[in-house]
Design a protein that fits this description.
By secondary structure, the protein is mostly helical. It has 2 domains: about 50 residues, no CATH class; about 60 residues. The protein has 4 helices and 2 strands. The longest helix is centred in the middle third of the chain and has 55 residues. The chain is elongated, with a radius of gyration of 31 Å.
Length: about 140
C-alpha cells in the first residue's frame, strides 16, 4: 500500500521514443510533450547521428529561445499599451480642463480663459503654446 502512495500520478506521454509519466493538467502536459517531441524530431532529422542527450539539449535551447522571443514581444506590446493609456489619460484630463475652463467662462468667473488653458497645458505636459492676439 505504501508503494502505491509513492507512485507518481500523471499523464503518460511519449517524447522522442521514450515514455514518461508527468504530473499536471493532462491537456497541457500532452501539448507540451508534443511540442518538445516535435523540436527533438526536427533536430534529429537534420543530424541523424547526434546522441539523444545532445538532441535534448539543443531542443531545450530552441524552446528557451522561443520563450525569450515571446517574452520580448509581450514586453513591447505591454509598453505600447501603457504609452497609449497614458496618452489617452492626458487627453481626457486636458479635455476635462478645457470643459472646466469653459464652464467658468460662461459663469463670468474666468477672464482670458485661453491664457489659462495654455498655462495649464504647459504645466502638465511641458508644452509651449505661442501667445497670439485675438482675431477681430
Amino acid at each position: 500500500m505504501a508503494q502505491r502512495e509513492t507512485q507518481v500520478q500523471g499523464v503518460l506521454v511519449e517524447i522522442f521514443g521514450e515514455q514518461y509519466r508527468i504530473g499536471g493538467d493532462p491537456k497541457q502536459v500532452q501539448q507540451v510533450a508534443a511540442y518538445v517531441d516535435k523540436k527533438m524530431q526536427e533536430i534529429a532529422d537534420k543530424n541523424a547521428r547526434m546522441p539523444k542527450a545532445q538532441i535534448a539539449m539543443l531542443a531545450a535551447m530552441e524552446v528557451a529561445a522561443d520563450l525569450f522571443k515571446v517574452m520580448s514581444e509581450r514586453k513591447v506590446f505591454t509598453d505600447r499599451a501603457h504609452e497609449s493609456v497614458e496618452r489617452l489619460t492626458r487627453l481626457v484630463e486636458d479635455r476635462a480642463t478645457l470643459t472646466d475652463l469653459g464652464e467658468e467662462d460662461r459663469t463670468g468667473q474666468a477672464d482670458r480663459s485661453s491664457d489659462r488653458i495654455a498655462e495649464r497645458l504647459q504645466a502638465r505636459q511641458g508644452v509651449r503654446v505661442p501667445h497670439s492676439s485675438p482675431v477681430e
